[in-house]
Write a structure and sequence with these properties.
The protein has about 325 residues and is α+β, with helices and mostly antiparallel strands. Helix content is about 50%, strand content about 15%. It folds into two domains: about 190 residues, Porin chaperone SurA, peptide-binding domain (Triger factor/SurA peptide-binding fold, Orthogonal Bundle), CATH 1.10.4030.10; about 90 residues, Chitinase A, domain 3 (Roll). The strands form two sheets. Strands 1-8-2-3 form a four-stranded antiparallel beta sheet. Strands 5-4-7-6 form a four-stranded antiparallel beta sheet. Strand 2 and strand 3 form a beta hairpin.
Length: about 325
């Protein structure tokens, strides 16, 4: 029997490739594709009524079972699910499918789509993360490339929708960013920092020769511009301020023990042979708003986007005609 579903809150997952939430984007889609491939081998059964409809568009049994199977496979890694946990998971899976359907419909209404060029560009970004192993996931890995591409296209569509319909409307003024900073000063405090310049050279003999020149009084920045192979050479080797933990431990120990103005001995790393000079130090403590302004604005924007998303998706759900056929089905062979 159908019943109307009330809108539920909850932030839709962040889709940034660099910030992937609890499950990496690629791994999540791999799971989807793997389970879909397994499901295709099951015998067909008579047509079943839709699990739910969203503005007249069905969420069918196959789609629901597929999504539920993925979540159950992840949830049952440690211990089997209790009956009440399974029922709760069914509701969560359906809520997610309903939200995705509502968002896809919103994207259609706004004429938002993902073109082939956009999709290809994203695939190339992902490919770079796999060090030549990407193509082996398809065929040898048992993953369907067409299904994986469509899952990625769908995810990109929802990303694009949220950016355009929610995030693009968010503004952060300097005065509210400063108020946020004042309320969260401890979050922007720092440990002791050092400002360091470096010269990087390809072999030890050359580095030792440069060290002798520096000890004889040559200007560190001038020499760095002349001979360093590091990317910061044009800035006289200046790496700026950093805290402990940014550099390898051995280099940390060296630069944090040097007095200001002193030059280090030659140190080896995977990138070459380094000579460091400490240009300045900053004690642990708070930083001025001007020093952390960009980070504060980014943090506040992220918070405002999450709040705006919640209001936005609840508004879309409230306007949608949603019908659910209960009781919700389980996976075949598990009920």
């Amino acid at each position: 029997m159908g019943d109307a579903m009330t809108g539920k809150g909850g932030h839709f997952p962040c889709f940034s490739r660099k910030n992937r939430g609890s499950v990496p984007l690629f791994l999540l889609i791999v799971v989807i594709s793997s389970l879909a491939a397994c499901g295709s081998e099951k015998p067909s059964r008579p047509p079943q009524p839709a699990v739910a409809t969203v503005n007249g568009q069905s969420i069918d049994l196959k789609e629901f079972e597929k999504a539920l199977g993925e979540e159950m496979a992840l949830a049952k890694k440690d211990v089997p699910l209790k009956r009440e946990e399974t029922e709760s998971l069914k509701e969560e899976v359906l809520d997610n499918l309903i939200r995705e359907r509502i968002m896809s419909q919103r994207a259609r209404d706004l004429y938002i789509s993902i073109g082939e060029a956009e999709l290809a560009a994203r695939i190339e970004e992902i490919r770079k993360d796999y060090n030549g192993q990407f193509d082996k996931l398809f065929g040898e890995g048992g993953i369907s490339l067409p299904e994986w591409k469509e899952a990625l296209r769908k995810r990109m569509l929802l990303e694009k929708l949220i950016v355009r319909d929610v995030n693009a409307k968010i503004q952060v003024a300097d005065d509210e960013a400063e108020r946020y900073y004042n309320d969260h000063r401890r979050a922007y405090a720092t440990d002791r920092r050092v400002r360091v310049a470096q010269i990087v050279l390809p072999d030890r003999d050359l580095a030792e020769g440069i060290l002798k020149r520096l000890k004889a009084g040559e200007d560190f920045g001038k020499v760095a511009r002349e001979v360093s192979i590091g990317p910061e050479a044009t800035q006289g080797g200046d790496l700026g301020f950093f805290e402990r933990g940014v550099m390898p431990e051995a280099i940390d120990r060296m630069v944090f023990s040097l007095p200001v103005g002193k030059v280090s001995r030659v140190a080896k790393s995977p990138y070459g042979f380094h000579i460091f000079k400490v240009l300045g130090q900053a004690a642990a403590g708070g930083r001025k708003f001007a020093d952390v302004r960009e980070k504060v604005i980014a943090d506040l924007r992220k918070q405002k986007e999450a709040e705006a998303y919640k209001i936005w998706i609840e508004g879309l759900q409230a306007k949608a005609a949603i019908r659910i056929n209960r009781p919700l089905p389980g996976l075949r062979g598990t009920d």
